[in-house]
Amino acid sequence: MSDPYASRTAVHEQVTDGFGTVRVLPVDAEADAGVIHRWVSEERASFWGMTGLTERQVAEIYAHMDTLPTHHAFLVVREGEPVALLQTYEPEADRVGECYDVRPGDIGVHLLLAPAGPDGGRPGWTAGLIAVVAAYVLVGLDRRRVVVDPDVRNEKAIARFLRQGFTAGPVVVLPEVDLPDVYLPEKKAQLAFLDREILFPA
């Protein structure tokens, strides 16, 4: 089967024994809207805050994000199959920056995993993806620390991050954002942090 993403330039590519080749591709708002819309429309993705949006609205959101110098979106592709949506951002340019003391070298991450296939969950799958994402943002982008801000009710995501070596920070309330191009309701979040030295000792 041919890889529909083969012609696209990756910002990061990693081959892992037993897991295969994973590529991190900048989101193409038009080309990727269908895949992203399917994922964010599922009930399990309710914490992503995009259920109920049309595919066109999803495309517009990511087209807008592509104009921002501080927020970026990527499609994570394993062996030609899209497996996750990754968003990175500068914490000082995001509402999370109002809720903790941002350090030089911090980078914020949102990660939405694709739904499990017809065979259900696969052992080691999530750990493998998070390891690739961590390698990209910490080593590839030369950052010191990752911050994540899952909704406090999203217990599965919080547990997943803690298993991967993240340290739980405070529970905070992210303020509402109401701008012409973006609206985000107030969110109670569990902050968690991952220092580069944990995964990549000097």
Count of helical stretches:
5
What best-fitting shape do the alpha-carbon axes yield? globular
Structural class: alpha+beta
**Helix content bin:** 25-40%
Report how far apart the termini are. 40 Å
Fraction of residues in β-strands: 25-35%
Q: Can you tell me the residue ranges where pLDDT is under 50 for at least 5 consecutive residues?
A: none
The helix/strand series, from N terminus to C terminus, equals: EEHHEEEHEHEEEEH
Biggest β-sheet, characterized?
A: 8 strands, mixed
Mean pLDDT: 91
Protein name: Lysine N-acyltransferase MbtK
InterPro entries: Acyl_CoA_acyltransferase, Acyltransferase_MbtK/IucB-like
Pfam families: Acetyltransf_8
Pathway: Siderophore biosynthesis; mycobactin biosynthesis
Structure description:
With 202 residues, the chain is of the alpha+beta class. The chain is 26% helix and 31% strand. It is built from five helices and ten strands, in the order ββααβββαβαββββα. The chain has helices spanning 29-41, 55-65, 125-140, 155-163, 196-199, and strands at residues 12-16, 20-26, 71-78, 81-89, 106-113, 145-148, 167-174, 177-178, 183-184, 187-195. An eight-stranded mixed beta sheet has the order 1-2-3-4-5-6-10-7, sandwiched between helices. Strands 8-9 form a two-stranded antiparallel sheet. Strand 8 and strand 9 (183-184) form a beta hairpin. Helix 1 packs across helix 2. The chain is globular, with a radius of gyration of 16 Å. The mean pLDDT is 91. InterPro entries: Acyl_CoA_acyltransferase (IPR016181), Acyltransferase_MbtK/IucB-like (IPR019432). Pathway: Siderophore biosynthesis; mycobactin biosynthesis. This is Lysine N-acyltransferase MbtK. Residues 25-73 form the Acyltransferase MbtK/IucB-like conserved domain. Acyltransferase required for the direct transfer of medium- to long-chain fatty acyl moieties from a carrier protein (MbtL) on to the epsilon-amino group of lysine residue in the mycobactin core.
